[in-house]
Amino acid sequence: MSSSILITGGAGFIGSHLVRLFVTKYPQYNIVNLDKLTYAGNLENLKDIENRPNYSFVKGDITDLQLLRNLFAEHKFSGVLHCAAESHVDRSITDPLAFVTTNVLGTATLLLAAKEAWDGVYDGKVFYHISTDEVYGSLGEEGFFIEETAYDPRSPYSASKASSDHMVRAFYHTYHFPVKISNCSNNYGPFHFPEKLIPLCIHNIINNKSLPIYGKGENVRDWLFVEDHVRAIDVIYHTGKIGETYNIGGHNEWTNIALVKELCRQMDEKLGREKGTSEKLITYVKDRAGHDLRYAIDATKLKNELGWLPSLQFEEGISKTIDWYLANTEWLNDVTSGAYLEYYNKQYS
Ligand code: NAD
Ligand code: TYD
Question: I need a labelling partner for 75 at 20 to 30 A (CA). Which of 38, 221, 286, 327 fits?
């Protein structure tokens, strides 16, 4: 193995795609996936690669400094791809401290463990922090987030991610620690936990349950297929500059209501239901507290400097995503039973 890389949160949605890409594309890398397996972490997401010789899994918490020290000592990581986080805005509204613990304290602990292990020898080392466009706050009808946009987080989730980004940059400026950061727009695709809008609606359409739209459904998100996101991470990890931030996005803005109607249209076709059947499930519910109006990313820097572009048009990506959920109803049923049911009933009662 030419080098060992620690991926945190690799059993989650984006992390599992990232682990799969690195394990299969780079057999010369030893990939260690550290994940606490919260409700959002699921080893089923990695069934197809779990027996690869260059992959191993460790169950553990990124706030556990001693565990991190042991892992760095054992594997001599030269890279860290940090995905682990609490990631759902609605949960952050009811339990902000969980977000501070994992996203802020966890990131700081991981930085410290890597700094201790690398001990000032930073040549060939990379600490890559995976972040979100939500740190920039909420846009009006016009404009885009660029890398220099001032931070203006407005939910406990985005505030915790902003705080972790600041900590990562503080290590770069204070210790010349070798960091890279990317801030990406909303992702969608296979293995997306059905608490988020797209998989929640796919699940509910399959089961003829109502489709809860917050407020008037006019909020706008910029959606990117998850495989395009992890391809961008690969490019930035290998060719991006130390100390730099890169925005990742698909120039693919949808209001929530238009997006859900497109889902309904495609699912009626795929399920052989009469046109308009699923749209009848749309239900407007109480708005999310502090609901950000619009996110939209300008990813020009990534395109011009590193040559990355999204590969999929949205209608095609959504079609692939729906097909995956229809073919994997067992996965969907497994993750929507148990603790998730309790959350769902509380959130939407
Ligand atoms: P996710 O919730 O699906 O997965 C998070 C993973 O982290 C889970 O496997 C969970 O078990 C693990 N985890 C949580 N707390 C942990 C801890 N204390 N120690 C170790 N592991 C822990 O999240 P996701 O959607 O895959 O997001 C991954 C990263 O990408 C996050 O940092 C998120 O902020 C960022 N991001 C997400 C999106 C998106 O649209 N989902 C967009 C941009 C950026
Ligand atoms: P979500 O998938 O939670 O991502 P984020 O809040 O990180 O953007 O939500 C996407 C959009 O969909 C957001 O504007 C909130 C809205 N939404 C609903 O209208 N109903 C829902 O049940 C959920 C979960 C989200």
Answer: 38
Confirm whether 159 is domain-assigned. Answer: yes
Residue 338 confidence (pLDDT): 83
Instruction: Give the closest residue (by CA) to ligand 1 atom 44.
Output: 132
Q: Is residue 20 classed exposed, middle or buried when 0-12, 13-18 and 19+ CB atoms within 10 A define those classes?
A: buried
User: In angstroms, what is the span from residue 61 Cα to ligand 1's centroid?
Assistant: 13
How many domains is the chain partitioned into structurally?
Answer: 1
> Is 48 among the residues known to form the active site?
no
C-beta of residue 220 within 8 angstroms of C-beta of residue 295: yes
Q: Atom of ligand 2 at shortest distance to CA of 295?
A: 8
pLDDT at 98 > cutoff 80: yes
Q: What's the pLDDT tens digit per position in 203-243?
A: 999 999 999 999 999 999 999 999 999 999 999 999 999 99
Query: Which residue carries 């660029």 as its tokens?
Result: 146
Please give the structure tokens belonging to residue 253.
Answer: 């803005």
Strands lying side by side in the sheet with 186-188: 186-188, 220-225, 253-255
From the CA of 186, give the closest atom in ligand 1: 40
Q: What angle do CA 336, 342, 347 make, to 5 degrees?
A: 100
Cα-to-chain-centroid distance, residue 324: 18
Domain that holds residue 46: 3-188+223-248
Beta carbon of 85 within 6 Å of any ligand 1 atom? yes
Residue 341 in any domain: the answer is: no
Q: What is the mean pLDDT of the chain?
A: 97
Query: Which CATH number belongs to the domain containing residue 46 in this structure?
Result: 3.40.50.720
Percent of the chain at pLDDT exceeding 70? 100
Would the pTM count as exceeding 0.85?
A: yes
Residue 58 covered by a domain: yes
Check residue 341 and give its pLDDT.
Answer: 86
Burial of 25 (0-12, 13-18, 19+ CB in 10 A): exposed
Instruction: Tokens for 21, please give them.
Output: 């890409």
Task: Let me know: does 133 contact 115? Beta carbons within 8 Å.
Answer: no
